[in-house]
Amino acid sequence: MTELSSLLHQFAGLFDRLDVPYAVMGGWAVRLYALPRPTYDIDFTILIDRERLPDLYETARDAGFSVPEQFAAGWIDSVAGMPLVKFRLFVEGHSIDIDVFLAESDYQRAIMDRRQSHEVAGRGAWFVSPEDLVLLKLIAGRKRDLADIEDILLGQPDVDEAYMRRWAKPLGVADQLEQALAERA
Question: For residue 68, which of 77, 105, 155, 157 sits 20 to 30 Å off, Cα-Cα?
Fold first, then answer.
């Protein structure tokens, strides 16, 4: 098992111990649904009340992870309107970042309802669906994300387009979704 896949399972185990539903997203999910590409961090989305974050921070620290001071003090970052907290693990002279998005919007709760169990390095883990991964990548909108979308749609030809269209408009990515779907054809 690679260092990152081991870390993915270790951090998912923290969520399991706390009975916190999670789903892996980002580069690890791209590896599952499309052409594998290098990734150097791990991204999760979780369903947790903010009042329970100190318990998560303590559990993570006990497992050897660090919690950046501003997050431990109660600050919550936001990326594309989605609340985010960060963790870090220092391994052999470098750090590995773990970004954890808090599922607080209706869309993020839908992500959690549609998560799927898949095997990584011989062990099961929960992942966002390919449809949600496309939508999340559209929200991020970086050049790498757009390339990932093309690969995901190539690798997952039977995606639920109706589901994606239902969420694309309120997420502000309807035009981008239609363009990605048209380019796939």
Answer: 105
